[in-house]
Amino acid sequence: MNKFTRFVAAAALALSGTSAMSATVANGSFEDIGSLTLNSSGWSFFTSIPGWTGSPNGEIQSAPTISAVNAQDGRYYAELDTNKNSTIYQDVMLDAGKYLLSFWYSPRVPASGNPSASTNDMTFAVGSLLSGSVNGAPNAAFPHKVWTEVTSLFTVGTAGTYRLSFSGAGAQDESNGCGDCGALIDNISISAVPLPASALFLLAGIGGLGALRARRRAVA
After folding, report:
1. Dihedral sign for Cα atoms in the order 59, 63, 65, 69
2. Based on the number of CB atoms within 10 Å of its own CB, is 118 exposed (0-12), middle (13-18) or buried (19 or more)?
3. Which has the least CB within 10 A, 6, 7, 33, 60?
């Protein structure tokens, strides 16, 4: 293998490695609650449902348990406060490449009760690859009684299993009338970010140069 051939192979490998396959987030919209039984008010705590584990537990809400807040997708959604801030998580398999995490968020507690309240704060993470937060809602970016999509890009350098997690980080503030209320989330997904057109053209061009070089050697 000559230097040019090695260069073509290395470049093709580097470019193709940046295009990942979409990951499967199990039960991303919480529509499968397994054997969980909701109470008469339409909600329940859980330690595990298909795809998700709660630490110390999680909470499933059903539409329309909370006035004017239906699920963003389907019937069920999760709340990240179960009388205390809670975390829900699952492990996802990711190839090397670039990804987009998407989920929908709504603040449960209205600003009218206490404008300085921060009971709706939350954090999210994909292993050590990504960490983010939503703070200070409701506000102009995240209004009350509205679902707003949150997206964040991240890159996987080494294929493997990574923990996807969402955690309540809000204050337990009774002055707003709902100290045990927190962030609502629904419709969670991780999708691969495709190669840009420029990279695809470059890959095709490198391949074409390699083929042309091989053809010239054959003619000679």
Report:
1. positive
2. middle
3. 6
In Å, what is the CA distance from 49 to each residue of 59, 60, 89, 93?
10, 10, 11, 19
Q: Distances in Å between the alpha carbon of 123 and those of 1, 2, 139, 192, 218?
A: 50, 51, 17, 22, 60
DSSP 33: -
What digits encode the pLDDT tens for the residues 105-150? 999 877 665 545 578 999 999 999 999 999 999 899 999 889 999 9
Q: For residue 64, give the amino acid letter.
A: P
State the amino acid at position 164 in one-letter form. L
What's the whole-model pTM score? 0.80
pLDDT digits (tens, 9 = 90+) for 24-76: 899 999 999 999 999 999 999 999 999 999 999 999 999 877 877 899 999 99
Distance CA 97, CA 162 (A): 13
Cis-peptide, bond into residue 50, ω within 30° of zero:
no
Vertex 169, ends 127 and 53: CA angle to 5°? 50
